[in-house]
User: Fold 6-bladed beta-propeller protein from Rhodohalobacter mucosus.
Amino acid sequence: MSRFYPLFLICLFACQPDDSETVQFEEVNFAEVTTLLSAESHDQIGQPANLHYSNSGLILYDYSAQSVFLFDDNGEETLRFGSEGDGPGEFRYIAGLWKKNDQYIAYDRNSGKLIHYNTDGLFVKETPLDLEAMPLSMSLLTENEIYVPANGFEGSLIRRITLQNNSTVLLGESLMGDDYDFDFDRSQQEILSGKIPPTMINRLILSSNESGLFSFQQATAVLQKYSHSQELLWEVNLSDIPATEGIFDRFIEINQSFADRGMRNMYMIQHASDITAADSGVFLLMNTIPERASTVVWVSNQGDRVVSAYLPETDNFNPDLIAVSHDGADIYLGSRMDGVVVKMSWPI
Assistant:
């Protein structure tokens, strides 16, 4: 799985709202991977399901332990809080973690709420989410404002919701409207004929920093950036970078195997496993085929520079979670399947 490239430049195409220009693209390698957490080093870590970096350390939600942990730079536990359940401060499945000011905030997707804890891990309050369906991805702008996918509602991609009064602002142009009904058999046939069904077209993963909101389209591998005043600043198409090669064919192959076995399963196309923004830009953990190295892609705040960084060959490690220090110097990758979190230095 290892790849060793000299640093070189090629060009990608970036679309600006009013203009277009080339983007500088670079390929580098991570020099070293250090295991920070595993079942061997911490008996409560079995299935890490969400990571977030804060100025207090690495925040980790482990599904098997049904707890949130805080770790320092050496992997030492400094705090543990939360538990499984439906009561105040309890959760079923955490799909997002953030630290805002003096609070840790968890998004419980199964229960449809945000849970607020103080810096000692004590329950403060809950905020119910008044949404038709709970999103897979969410970005917390402030403790009172969130970004969620709009799923084509009124022709838009994203909703910015103020929780205090449940007011909504729509942004982005959807690739497909929301006026379609899901039909499994039709969707499966579209996939097997080489198409992406409408139900997958508008799927997004989201993250934000002070400079704006980053939205990655899972079906098309297009990354867009919006200002917090809802202006589209730029977009970069990542479908031609090495990490994305073979993803669509793999998508078709897996769904064909389901159909051949008479299974009513559907594998969702996704070009990236996870996304997180740092001060300098946004980091994406790409979803690569087994023959390709695990890849982290960074795109600058200005959208004018893209760096693909490849992991060396690592046995029994298939990352699907990413967290990054605010300055972008430290990269944390986690694997739900392997129960491992590793730490690396950004190579440039």
